[in-house]
Amino acid sequence: MVAQTPWSAVAQGAWWPIGFLAVATVVGETKPLLISRSGRSSGTVSTSGPFVLALVAVAGVGVAVLAQAVASLADDLINRRTPKKSAFNSAQYVLSLVAARAVYSGLAHRPFFGGPSTVEARDVGPLLAGGLAMVVVNLFLVAIVVAIATPQPLLTVVREDARFHAATQVVLLCIGAVAATVAKDGVAVLALLCAPVVVVHWTTAAAIRHGHEASHDSLTGLSNRDRLYTQLEHTFAAAHRTASSGPGLVLLDLDHFKDINDTLGHPVGDRLLQQVAERLVLALGDDDLASRLGGDEFAVVVDGDLAATQTVAQALLASLEAPMRVGEVELLVRASAGVAVAPEHGDDAEALMKNADIALYQAKLDRDRISTYSPEYDVNTLERLQLLADLRTALDTGQLDVAYQPQVSLISRRMVGLEALIRWQHPTRGAVPPESFIPLAENSGMIAELTAFVLDAALGQLAALRTAGHELRMAVNLSARHLSDLALPRQVAEALTRHGIPPAMLVLEVTETGILADPARVDAVIGTLRELGVAIAVDDYGTGHASLSYLKTLEVDELKIDKSFVVDMGRDTHDFIIVRSTIALALDLGLRVIAEGIEDEETAVALRALGCGVGQGYHLGRPTTPDQILLRLDDERSLAASRPAATL
Question: Mean pLDDT over residues 545-572, rounded?
Fold first, then answer.
């Protein structure tokens, strides 16, 4: 084709315009237009198109092919494409230009291998038809490769490409027809066409930018919720065509992120979210797979079955295990993940999102880190939401109350402490047990307000008891989530000051699960609380994991033996041995020890014999009102006044 080109005619012709068009072809190829699809750059359209089309008519197919080959090779070298891909690019351009010249020659009645010629106004129609043929051939060649590499049908690829390329290609082809027509007037006139090409370039770049902003999160650069739904719909369509399982969806939510924002400020929280996004992208190996749904919630669409989706979820959580440094602060970030996979867990994007969110809620509820959707999780979901709304109302309208359970000396049988226990009397449901609403409060972020309510009420009651002449300790439970709140020590200090309570009279009870959920942050919070003088008790001791390891490193003041071991210690040898060993361990470590779940006198006597000084349980006193507590304390004082008081 190049060999059959009449180069002598080219040399004798208007070679300056031809040279200009050839150079413009090279520049246009190396500076392509990005094309936006679903809010992202999904391909390019070369701005060499109008100039090489003009060369097809003005200089002949050989010159056009040669100029395009040089331009394509330059672009491939710049972008370091493989020889295989470079060869494909060159071949597709050759075929496209041959098609363009064939159509133009046939309609304009010009020889196929003709040399330089002048394009008149009557030739514009045939040239536009040739340009259309060039675009169509190129479109089909690329679509065939895409269809082979992906499960998408050929016609679907062609239809989508045509839709997104059409407007830009029409403008470029028109510029090419004008360039061919004015080439006879010299380079100066041709140069005027650079302006509209630049304008097209700028306009397309602005459209890409706006499209990206509309479909991506401005903070992290990840896809946003709208684009996630688009990805899900496309993946669903591909799965339906191939009758395969999937897609899978992983929803990921950071634990205690609100605490970081509240304590360290939103700028630190924003930088942390950016680092989380970077970790997720690195774990996935593709910056196009992860989405940020808002706040501290992220999502990933997985093109695979349940096993593949669970593997991705594990990889995402593992990527967050290493500490993240924001300025001078090093933070440990933990997250929970919910997994749902089509068609088992939903046959459309909305159902899959809903069920993945339910699984995420369950993961936070069970603290399993990863939870896969199960229909049983969906039971009473609406009821839970209503209960959460009612809890907010209860907090605002005074439906919540605090009961106090005595902690009694097993030697003197006098009350030495109280445990504050939240109670909720719902106007229609009646008494709502704490285990029904505390997890809801933890996962909704309301737990801090509940804890603040209980702490304030408990310290207020303790102040009233001190005024009445009774000195005893007050225990308040901390949830696992609140235990990681870096602002907690300040809140506790303010409450103690407000009620005039010495810090040593307050005991904050934490669980083993709460301690192990985020050891580094919990260690810092507990350390600050103990510096205030507040005592720390490990509640439900023996029901968690790695108890000995954290007792070695974490400073606490008190162990509370879980009632599951205490209740049957008189009948179960194993429970008795566990209780005896725990008491001995606590005493050797210099800790106070309290036994929960004492429901009979025999158990109380046995615990005293083992060295346990304080007990708690229905046998020693049920949770009751402040008035009843004061009445009992007054009775104990009166009784003690009539005889020598026993001591611990």
Answer: 77
Higher model confidence: residue 347 or residue 276?
276
- According to DSSP, the residues that pair with 508 across neighbouring strands are 476, 536
| Cα 619 from Cα 196, distance rounded (Å) | 90
Q: How far apart are CA 556 and CA 211, in angstroms?
A: 55
Question: Is there a contact between 269 and 339 (Cβ–Cβ < 8 Å)?
Answer: no
Average of pLDDT values for 129-144? 85
Which residue type does 462 have?
L
Please write down the HEC assignment for all residues of 554-595. Answer: CCCCEEEECHHHHCCCCCCHHHHHHHHHHHHHHHHCCCEEEE
Give the model's confidence band at 358: pLDDT under 50 very low, under 70 low, under 90 confident, else very high. Answer: confident
Distance CA 160, CA 418 (A): 70
Among 283, 278, 155, residue whose Cα is nearest residue 222 = 278
User: Which position has the token pair 């006098």?
Assistant: 414
Report field, pTM of the whole predicted structure over 0.70: no
- At position 159, the amino acid (one-letter code) is R
Give how far Cα 115 sits from Cα of 124, 262, 542, Å.
18, 75, 92
d(CA 223, CA 300): 10
* Under 8 Å between Cβ of 614 and 592: yes
Q: In a 10 Å sphere around its CB, with 0-12 CB exposed, 13-18 middle and 19+ buried, how is residue 412 labelled?
A: middle
Which residues fall within 8 angstroms of residue 171, CB to CB, at 6 or more apart? 196, 200
**HSE-CB for 271 with a 13 A CA cutoff:** 12
Across residues 490-498, what is the average pLDDT? 94
* Structural tokens at position 265: 């400020």
Q: How many CB atoms lie within 10 A of CB 631?
A: 12
